[in-house]
């Protein structure tokens, strides 16, 4: 159960359930309880990014995204876990981390019932059921149709073409393209 800061926030929240006075995006149909939220959202469609990082030049559509980004440069990690003391740059990262301690997995798969701590992990998992493989090798994709359900699998596959071998065995010095190629005796 979430507590809302004021009666104003409560009235805005209730609009989600009643559909009253919702502000709708003409591009994608997404609805918002505040006109300001719709204005911020519209920058996704217009590509407007008026907030720039003075350190690296990266631009953002929202000032809070710039503030979060600046922590990369400052090293600031203002969100700390009360259980283990680990610190994070983003509050959502702390929320995700806390699920390790609580065991909470709020994102269940409707197909098989398996649950996940992160919605992104559920999205990747769903590709098992849908067969979706959105990561296609540009080198051989046209020839053999190789595509992958995860970006990391495509990255590993690309090493066939680039010859990159970033993993070295500390025991024997053997250099390999894939971490999983290390065989235990």
From TrEMBL:
The keyword Transcription regulation applies. It is found in: Nucleus. GO terms for cellular component: nucleus. One of its GO terms (biological process) is negative regulation of transcription by RNA polymerase II. Residues 23-50, 51-78, 79-106, 107-134, 135-166 form the C2H2-type domain. Gene3D superfamilies: Classic Zinc Finger. Coiled coil: none annotated. It holds the Pfam family zf-C2H2. It comes from the Eukaryota. The keyword Nucleus applies. Its main location: nucleus. SUPFAM superfamilies: beta-beta-alpha zinc fingers (SSF57667). Keywords: DNA-binding, Metal-binding, Nucleus, Repeat, Transcription, Transcription regulation, Zinc, Zinc-finger. GO terms for molecular function: DNA binding; zinc ion binding. Belongs to the krueppel C2H2-type zinc-finger protein family. May be involved in transcriptional regulation. This is C2H2-type domain-containing protein. It comes from Oryzias latipes.
């Amino acid at each position: 159960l979430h507590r809302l800061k004021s009666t104003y926030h409560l009235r805005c929240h209730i609009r989600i359930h009643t559909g009253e006075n919702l502000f709708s995006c003409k591009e994608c149909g997404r609805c918002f309880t505040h006109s300001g939220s719709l204005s911020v959202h519209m920058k996704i469609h217009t590509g407007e990014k008026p907030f720039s990082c003075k350190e690296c030049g990266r631009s953002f559509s929202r000032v809070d995204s710039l503030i979060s980004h600046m922590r990369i440069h400052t090293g600031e990690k203002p969100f700390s876990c009360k259980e283990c003391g680990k610190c994070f740059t983003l509050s959502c990262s702390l929320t995700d981390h806390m699920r390790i301690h609580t065991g909470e997995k709020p994102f269940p798969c409707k197909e098989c019932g398996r649950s996940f701590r992160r919605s992104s992990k559920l999205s990747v998992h769903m590709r098992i059921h849908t067969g979706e493989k959105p990561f296609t090798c540009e080198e051989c994709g046209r020839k053999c149709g190789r595509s992958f359900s995860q970006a990391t699998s495509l990255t590993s596959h690309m090493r066939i073409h680039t010859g990159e071998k970033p993993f070295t065995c500390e025991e024997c010095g053997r250099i390999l393209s894939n971490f999983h190629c290390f065989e235990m005796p």
